[in-house]
Amino acid sequence: MARNIVDTLQPRKTIPATLLGVGLGVGAGSLIAASVSALAGYFARRVVTPEERRIGNSMIREVVTDAEGKLWLHFVKDSDTNQPGPCIFLTEFDACALRLSAPADVPGKPRLVARKIEHVYRGSLEGVRRGYLSGAIYEHPEDLGFTAEDVVVPLEGGDGPAWLVRGTTNKDVWVIGVHGRGARRNESIRALPALGSMGVTALLMSYRNDGLAPHAPDGRYGLGDTEWLDVQAGIKFALDHGAQQIILLGWSMGGAISLQTADRSELADRIDSLMLVGPVINWVDVLSHQARANKIPQSVGRFAQWLLSNKAGRWVTGQAAPVNLRRLNWVDRASELKHPTLIMHSRDDEFVPNGPSLKLAALRPDLVTLRTFTKAGHTREPNVDPQGFSNAITSFLTKRIAANEPSSQH
């Protein structure tokens, strides 16, 4: 069955009577209307509110030692625990962090899946029964043998911690890593092998509400509509420290942030190009997909989008200002794209479906290079196909560096 995706959202200056009836329960004050309003409000708040506690639902059933003395965790098999590729297992407040292998079958136990503990970053499994799994499998650039300097990027709200991995043969080419929603700067570490092979400098930065950089004044995500100001500060830092060519590497929501930076920053002309991994190209598509995935009726999902994108919704979401969802829709704005862009997106991404990425690439073949992957979950492209991921980056960077050599500009 074809997916019923809402491709555009038209902001309204006034609240329609039907939405007043649904959202505020005006008139009859029916239980159904109140329930719809509450559900839409909950969904909208979840989208823009950072999670301070992530307990996770991946259940450990057994801890097993194999013949070589290696420890394996046996999880209840589900879409998360059975995701292809290695991952990291984190417990509440990240007290325990373990890097795990790709999944394997448990002989005679089809409802379980096994992952070997490859590295213990911190903590222990004593008393641990559940946690959450992430594709950001490295905690520090040193885990892959890279020397990183601790630096600070001055942001609007205060100091943003960052890692600086200096380049060699192309040290004046800077790639700025922009992580996704709910992630941190370590998300970009998986790109360091490719970046290192090209001899470029990497700045893995923090931004508002990520648990390292200061909170935004309202403590809410802007879905890219506000965070781009922090990436602009990262670009200024790079320029102040010798960067001549700047490329943004955005993951998931970091892709939306990178696109906004390239569109709205006063330093946009200093950005050479973008590399985007599982990017949010159109938030309306993502929100509609997430509503369906959570079995939320379409009307409720649309009302949640309305709450996010209109001033009247601020009393529900806690936002200082509404999110401009139209401005974040790069399918509709394809003609306004100005920078060469590499998009790396899995066809099996169930969190941010790749449909808008495919559409943008089809609409702008002059600027967009598309590399599709299979079997990888959201932003797990480097976990499932590290060589393909590396090849995509190095091929793109080779062309961008060559395009900026003095001889190529005549």
Automatic annotation (TrEMBL):
GO terms for molecular function: hydrolase activity. Residues 174-326 form the AB hydrolase-1 domain. Keywords: Hydrolase, Membrane, Transmembrane, Transmembrane helix. The keyword Hydrolase applies. PANTHER family: HYDROLASE ALPHA/BETA FOLD FAMILY, PEROXISOMAL MEMBRANE PROTEIN LPX1. The chain crosses the membrane at residues 20-44. The keyword Transmembrane applies. SUPFAM superfamilies: alpha/beta-Hydrolases. This is Alpha/beta fold hydrolase. Pfam families: Abhydrolase_1 (PF00561).
